[in-house]
């Protein structure tokens, strides 16, 4: 399978393809948290949070969020590369709700997670 373009997410064509050049920047990944109507928190990662939130609201993507009512973005943090974002997301998903609520309220705790993934 040919490498994919970071802009179009389609297989790269020729090196000179105007839609997708070899010098495309690697996207920066973000961690985000969404509050559902019932008060639950959903944690995810994306390169474009607004696009991803629109997908969630349209019922696309995470099955957990389908039918959960109004979704509100309550936390976002730039992480960097996809691997680090996945590791931090996995750790936060294991946290108890009160610890997630503290993160949403203050952002305290995210720095430590980021330090572990960025030597």
Topology:
Elements: E1 29-35, E2 41-46, H1 49-57, E3 72-80, H2 82-93, H3 97-106, H4 110-117
Helix pairs in contact: 2-4
Looking at this protein, list some descriptive labels.
18% strand; 119 residues; GIY-YIG endonuclease; 3-stranded antiparallel beta sheet; alpha+beta; 3 strands
In CATH, the homologous superfamily goes by the name GIY-YIG endonuclease
Please give the order of strands in the largest beta sheet: 2-1-3
Low-confidence segments, given as residue ranges, are: none
What is the residue-averaged pLDDT?
83
Number of strands: 3
Q: What's the end-to-end separation, in Å?
A: 32 Å
The largest sheet is: 3 strands, antiparallel
Query: Which CATH architecture is right?
Result: 3-Layer(aba) Sandwich
User: Helix content range of the residues, please?
Assistant: 25-40%
Strand content: 15-25%
Order of helices and strands: EEHEHHH
Q: What general outline do the C-alpha atoms trace?
A: flat
The CATH class is Alpha Beta
Task: Explain how this protein is built.
The protein is α+β, with helices and mostly antiparallel strands. The chain has a single domain, classed as GIY-YIG endonuclease. 33% of the residues lie in helices and 18% in strands. It is built from 4 helices and 3 strands; from the N terminus they run E-E-H-E-H-H-H. It has helices at 49-57, 82-93, 97-106, 110-117; strands at residues 29-35, 41-46, 72-80. It has a 3-stranded antiparallel sheet with strand order 2-1-3, sandwiched between helices. Helix 2 crosses helix 4 (110-117). The chain is flat, with a radius of gyration of 16 Å. The model has no long low-confidence stretch (mean pLDDT 83).
């Amino acid at each position: 399978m040919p490498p994919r373009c970071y802009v179009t997410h389609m297989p790269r064509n020729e090196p000179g393809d105007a839609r997708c050049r070899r010098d495309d920047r690697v996207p920066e990944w973000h961690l985000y948290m969404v509050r559902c109507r019932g008060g639950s928190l959903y944690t995810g990662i994306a390169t474009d949070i607004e696009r991803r939130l629109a997908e969630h609201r349209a019922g696309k993507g995470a099955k957990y969020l389908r039918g959960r009512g109004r979704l509100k973005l309550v936390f976002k943090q730039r992480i960097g590369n996809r691997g680090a974002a996945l590791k931090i997301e996995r750790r936060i998903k294991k946290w108890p709700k009160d610890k997630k609520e503290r993160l949403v309220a203050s952002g305290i705790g995210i720095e430590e997670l980021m330090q572990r993934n960025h030597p």
